[in-house]
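Re: BIS(adenosine)-5'-pentaphosphate structure - here you go.
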Amino acid sequence: MDIILLGPPGAGKGTQAGLLEGGHGMVQISTGDMLRAAKTANTELGQRVKAVMDSGELVSDEIVSNLIMEKLDDLGPDQGVIFDGYPRTEAQVYSLDEILTARNRKLHHVIELAVDVEALVERITGRFTCGNCGEGYHDTFKQPTKEGVCDVCGSTEFKRRPDDNEETVRTRMGEYRAKTQPILPIYEERGIVTKVDGMGSMDAVSNAIEAVLALD
Ligand code: AP5
């Protein structure tokens, strides 16, 4: 089963994709994570996208669609995937259609995480991750059980994203409103969109998504 998690920055796409990976053996495909990995490794791609990402704008459709193709070609045909942060523009929607058709794959669900955009600024500016294994935390909503020590790998190094400051978050929200929100009607017309309340607890959101998947 292939699904898309759609929502503005901080809606919880990455958090829920991680939970689905664990529970369903699906693979999370996050264009944001792939682009950040390229930045960290200082590859040619990383150097090209750094300034755009740090400003909060979207990188080109061609770059992200190429990343998606590479990732899918590494997976078996029966491996279900969760698209996290892709597609984000109308051009990416049609590009994904072609990519999936060429690989004999089908999109089953688009899950829209419905959220209060103002509350997201707090979610994003409080976010940090383990510098070693990447486990996600939050200053208010999810602190490590033992202060300063990652629950998963025991590392004591944590990091914050350079685009998680308030000014850049507002640019990212603007990009979402202008370029990503307009793709919803395309999927609504296909009858595959389910809206889930993204403002509940992480568990409540997860249960709501599970209920959607259980319908198959
Ligand atoms: P990307 O990495 O995709 O960032 P984003 O869409 O802005 O989304 P986030 O990762 O900020 O949020 P999320 O929804 O995953 O929330 P999370 O689960 O972390 O993209 C970054 C950049 O890359 C873009 O700006 C662009 O430049 C580029 N890019 C990426 N894809 C692209 C594409 N397709 N086309 C063009 N450019 C692209 O949760 C946030 C925080 O809230 C966490 O701390 C979490 O613990 C907490 N939290 C989560 N759920 C809950 C809850 N229910 N209650 C309380 N706290 C919660």
